[in-house]
Amino acid sequence: MKIALCNEVLKDLPFAGQCRAAAALGYDGLEVAPFTLADDPMEISDAQAREFGRMAQGHGLEISGLHWLLVAPAGLSIVSADAALRQRSTAVMQRLVELCALMGGRYLVHGSPRQRSVPPGESREAALERARACLAAAAQAAAQCGIVYCIEPLSRVETDLVNTVAEAVELVQTIDSPAFRTMIDCSAAGQVELEDIPTLMRRWMPTGHIAHVQVNDPNRRGPGQGGMRFAPILAALREMQAAGHYDGIVAVEPFDYVPDGMGAAARAIGYLRGIEEDATHD
């Protein structure tokens, strides 16, 4: 199973140092937050994007995809009543699709909870309709680049728009593009879903709507640093892979770094590889 590290975990290092550290720890790739590469990711040129990809490859890694998409530039929204702001936000999403492809990535994860939460005084239906139009435009760009744009279900603590996989799948079906899918974030799903993660995977992965998985605990630390058991989750993933229902990478995405970024990254990969090794001996 290929495992990527979300690069903001090592944000105190330059990108080359992140690649070196991730490779040394045993990761297969980096899932990149664009704001870690530039204060304004829109200023990243095509040549610079390709160089980031080459840098990762030089350390034996891939840039698997992008996430935390709308953190920078500041002030973006896909639900605002301001049409000009939504248009600007859509343009950022489309450019990030291009940058992802140039770096060699295969997917983008659209979390960005603050930039999609229902504005005060607005209805959820109106906000969702505006978000749908922006996401459909991003999906069109992803289709042109041969990659996948994923809407991420997030907990209700983070946002009030698209919280469950079922809600995300409904949006995926409405947009109806092979380049627009959804994903499972274990931390968010552990807080919101009524089913456990393995059951959730077995329910939704055969539909083809799940393109990505992020592993983290509901306490927002890395896998193995909380109460969620990941051995059954990895077993379900292997089962879905063997059945041809999932061919993506798994990304480690803690938010609370204990004892620090490097320690959290090392703990996570050791824990996950240990589960894999135990599974091969069963």
Can you summarize the main beta sheet? 8 strands, parallel, barrel
State the order of secondary-structure elements, H for helix, E for strand: EHEHEHEHEHEHHEHEH
Q: Total number of β-strand segments?
A: 8
- Give the total of domains: 1
The CATH homologous superfamily corresponds to Divalent-metal-dependent TIM barrel enzymes
Strand proportion, as a percent range, falls in: 5-15%
What is the name of the CATH architecture? Alpha-Beta Barrel
Q: State the shape.
A: globular
Mean pLDDT score, rounded? 97
N- to C-terminal distance: 17 Å
Fraction in helix: 40-55%
Radius of gyration: 18 Å
Structural class: alpha/beta
- Low-pLDDT windows of residues: none
Number of helices: 9
Q: What spatial order of strands do you see in the largest sheet?
A: 1-2-3-4-5-6-7-8
| CATH class group | Alpha Beta
> What is the name of the CATH topology?
TIM Barrel
What does this structure look like?
The longest helix has 22 residues, at 124-145. An eight-stranded parallel beta barrel has the order 1-2-3-4-5-6-7-8, surrounded by eight helices. It has helices at residues 15-25, 46-58, 83-103, 124-145, 165-175, 186-192, 197-204, 231-242, 261-281, and strands at 3-6, 29-32, 62-66, 107-110, 148-151, 180-185, 210-215, 250-252. The chain has nine helices and eight strands. Helix 2 (46-58) links the parallel strand 2 (29-32) and strand 3 (62-66). It has 282 residues and is of the alpha/beta class. The model has no long low-confidence stretch (mean pLDDT 97). The chain starts with a strand and ends with a helix. The protein has a single domain (3-281), classed as TIM Barrel (Alpha-Beta Barrel).
